[in-house]
Amino acid sequence: MSAGKAKDGRRSGCGSRRRRKQLDGWQLHPVLSPLTTSQAERLVRLSEEAVAKRGLSMRYDGAGAFVPVGSNGVQVRDGASAGLINLARTVADLPRQQWRSAVAAHFDQMTSPHGPPPIPDDLENELYLRLVCAATIDPEMSRGVPEFAPGVLTVPATYVGRGVAMHFNIDSLGVPPEEATRIGLANLRSLRDDIETVRFDGAELTLLTGSMFTASRALVFDTVLRESLQVENPPFGCLVAMPARDMLFVHVLRDQTMLKALQVLITTASSMFSTRPGPVSPHVYYVTDHEWHQVTDYSTGELRLRAIGQLEDAAQRLGVSDTAA
């Protein structure tokens, strides 16, 4: 019975409380979206089992991550942490019965749970720079890390097994920050993209994929244009989106289809940023003369397009009268 009568004739609230609890469980989790609250709770339980089975000195922090702890159970600064945001987005697309194996694979990638990530022997060929969403990183770890764009960090990173380790303590690399940047950019330039061209109502978009560092190739965008798109110094600039670690969208402005391209990129960037593992940025950017300008703004909770003089000038030269259309 959803709500019955108590012995004194009054209706009990057990049913309504039960319904409220069910409704709460169906709501999206505030951090581990696109999972619901009840799904997120199951993911945390499975992760706690995986952590215990592997003897990892970690505990769930209640905010979407497992953090390293000492023998007294108190969080410590040194040691690897394990965020669950990417894992949440991975299991969201899997049948329920496959969650346990996905969680196990996630924690099996942690090759150095009791200390900082291992430094590769061949740093010259194995160090990259990685773009990552600042909101997914512990503020203590990201203190002093440079930004590529507001809310997007640039972090030295290396492959560790099937995963990628980020090195927030640059001193541990054994090279000055300037040298780490040089090496990381050089290795990003050496990557090759898988290229797909898609069209929407005449607007041509290029989708680049191929590695865990594809979005990070925005840091070497001149190389991307030259080698992957066969374009150099486009006179009207480009619209670019990098919603997740393994994808980069580019539209080279050539004609009035820039409006359709902008609309598609806005929808695609926002959606993929919210659902794909390895979120980078929900925004669309205008790139011209090696300068990046953020076009979209969600700071008020709603979409707003920023006024960018260079983009408005390019639109006018292409015969587009209203970039906010």
Task: Name the overall outline.
Answer: globular
Number of helices, counting only DSSP H or I runs of 4 residues or more: 10
Helix content: 25-40%
Mean pLDDT: 86
Which range does the strand content fall in?
15-25%
Radius of gyration: 23 Å
What spatial order of strands do you see in the largest sheet? 8-9-11-10-12-13
Distance between the termini: 54 Å
How many structural domains are formed by the residues? Answer: 3
Unreliable spans are 1-12, 19-23
How many extended strands? 15
SS-derived structural category: alpha+beta
> Main beta sheet: strand number and arrangement?
6 strands, antiparallel
Explain the overall architecture.
- With 325 residues, the protein is α+β, with helices and mostly antiparallel strands.
- It folds into 3 domains: 23-108, no CATH class; 123-190, no CATH class; 194-317, no CATH class.
- Helices cover 32% and strands 21% of the residues.
- It is built from 10 helices and 15 strands.
- It has helices at 14-26, 37-53, 85-91, 99-108, 123-126, 139-142, 177-190, 221-228, 258-275, 309-317; strands at residues 58-60, 65-68, 82-83, 128-133, 147-149, 152-160, 163-166, 194-200, 203-209, 238-241, 248-252, 284-288, 291-294, 296-297, 304-305.
- Strands 8-9-11-10-12-13 form a 6-stranded antiparallel beta sheet, covered by helices on one side. Strands 4, 5, 6 and 7 form a 4-stranded antiparallel beta sheet that branches. A 3-stranded antiparallel beta sheet has the order 1-2-3.
- Helix 2 (37-53) crosses helix 4 (99-108).
- The longest helix has 18 residues, at 258-275.
- The termini are far apart.
- 28% of the residues are buried.
